[in-house]
Amino acid sequence: MNASDSTSPEEREAARRKAAEAARLARIFGDVLPETTADERGDGSRGSDDDEWLRSQIPPHHG
Q: Which stretches of sequence are listed as region Disordered (predicted)?
């Protein structure tokens, strides 16, 4: 028995539609949104190197 045997046709169709919608949005807008937001990640999560670079470019009188 595989995983698809335990799901109903409606669940499989809903999953297929969700995947198709995600693919359509990625085609239109690109894949720019993270899977999790900052409030869903732990405090130990660091930003990317680009974020660090940007922060280092802010003049002291603007920070």
A: 30-63
